[in-house]
Design goal:
Largest sheet: 9 strands, mixed
Bound molecules: flavin-adenine dinucleotide, glycine
Structural class: alpha+beta
CATH superfamily of the largest domain: FAD/NAD(P)-binding domain
Number of strands: 19
Strand content: 25-35%
CATH topology of the largest domain: FAD/NAD(P)-binding domain
Helix content: 25-40%
Number of domains: 3
CATH class of the largest domain: Alpha Beta
Distance between the termini: 31 Å
Radius of gyration: 21 Å
């Protein structure tokens, strides 16, 4: 029998790696199992936007959680750098939501007012104010809602930094190690069976992205395919992230720009379609006309994990004790990764304290 861990985590995406880090920070003995390579799926394919205000309206139940998670990134980036030596490339230049029509301008201004009433920064910029800040944007734009606190990171580096920091705190990781089932004892989960062996743990955390439903069929997962492309420029052309309709341009380190993303529900295939590329290129050209002269770099796909019910599932399983689920982060797993790690670690610690108190009183 292998040694007993405090926690076994299934999945080496940003969610599993954040949980590994936050548990290791609490001195828990953690092992993370990944069937492929760490950050090899959605977490490595993401654009890395921290779009708390861009993705959620203030009436959305996830809005407070998203804001809280986004606001953790500054401290987190320093903390992860100290432990792992990895710079997660946090860029805090804001996100611009463009308006090309009068109706869009009215809508964005209203959104901005609602954000302000909730205590968040949001400013309507006229066309001339916008072009002064971001001269490369199409002169057809009528203005933009500017969300200065919505930033961005490198999603791959964030995932790797969580894991490397967890390892620095004592966590173990096994790549190319597929979990095939849970070890069940009555209504309790005691660890997992991999293709090679059994791993026993006091707590089991399922963070398998869209594949989580293979291990727990009660999770109704919808795969939502997303395609992205990137290009490089010989000079910086954007400071902030720019979004119009379903398309965004995210300026990365080294004059690289990511253009995303298509959104195709119920699709698991990881091919980049000609249709997808064409749509992204057309939209990128509409937003920043000068891109036609820049260098195409590459294109890729990721599968967003969406739960049919909509919101992510973060917490103990409804039927099985000592099994925790952290899945269904859909479009916002990078943004929500710090808060998810904290929530799962806190719930596990809280249950332990409760069990200890119960034992002491018996
Ligand atoms: P994943 O990254 O898919 O990781 C799950 C891991 O579990 C995989 O590596 C898988 O191999 C492993 N696994 C599954 N089953 C098993 C098993 N049985 N045994 C062992 N390992 C297993 N979010 C943002 O916040 N901002 C963005 O800008 C953003 N842009 C995006 C752009 C695109 C094109 C896409 C596709 C997504 C984007 N997202 C963004 C969403 C974000 O990528 C996801 O929400 C997030 O990556 C989900 O993380 P995860 O760890 O749950 O899943
Ligand atoms: N959050 C951006 C995307 O999922 O494409």
């Amino acid at each position: 029998m292998s040694s007993i861990y405090d926690a076994v985590i299934v999945g080496g995406g940003v969610i599993g790696c954040s949980i590994a880090y936050h548990l290791a920070k609490q001195n828990k003995k953690v092992i993370l199992l990944e069937k492929g390579s760490v950050a090899g799926k959605a977490s490595g394919a993401a654009a890395g936007m921290l779009g708390a205000q861009m993705e959620f309206t203030c009436n959305d139940p996830l809005y407070p959680l998203a804001i809280k998670s986004r606001d953790l990134f500054q401290t987190l980036s320093e903390e992860l750098y100290r432990l792992s030596g990895i710079d997660i490339e946090l860029i805090e230049e804001g996100i611009y939501q463009l308006a090309f029509t009068e109706d869009e301008a009215v809508l964005h201004q209203r959104r901005g007012e609602q954000d302000q009433q909730s205590g968040e920064d949001a400013y309507w910029l006229t066309a001339s104010e916008l072009f002064e800040r971001e001269p490369a944007i199409s002169k057809k734009a009528q203005g933009a809602l500017y969300l200065p606190r919505d930033g961005q990171v490198s999603p791959k580096k964030l995932t790797e930094a969580f894991l490397k920091s967890a390892i620095a705190l004592g966590a173990e990781v096994r790549e190319y190690s597929e979990v095939v089932s849970f070890i069940r004892h009555d209504n309790c989960v005691r660890g997992v069976h991999t293709k090679r062996d059994a791993i026993f743990a006091r707590n089991t955390i399922l963070a398998g992205g869209v594949w989580s439903s293979e291990l727990d069929p009660t999770l109704e997962m919808v795969p939502v395919k997303g395609e992205c492309l990137s290009f490089t420029t010989n000079r910086p052309i954007l400071k902030g992230t720019v979004k119009y309709k379903n398309c965004y341009l995210v300026p990365k380190k080294g004059n690289r720009i990511i253009v995303g993303a298509t959104s195709i529900p119920d699709r698991f295939d990881e091919n980049v379609s000609f249709r997808g590329l064409f749509q992204l290129m057309e939209m990128a050209k509409e937003i920043v006309p000068g891109v036609v002269d820049d260098q195409f770099e590459k294109a890729w796909t990721g599968i967003r994990p969406q739960l049919r019910k909509g919101e992510p599932y973060i917490g103990e399983h409804k039927e099985y004790e000592q099994l925790f689920i952290a899945a269904g982060h859909y479009r916002n797993g990078i943004l929500l990764s710090p808060i998810t790690g904290i929530m799962v670690a806190e719930e596990i610690m809280q249950k332990e304290r409760q069990a200890f108190a119960n034992e002491a009183s018996n």
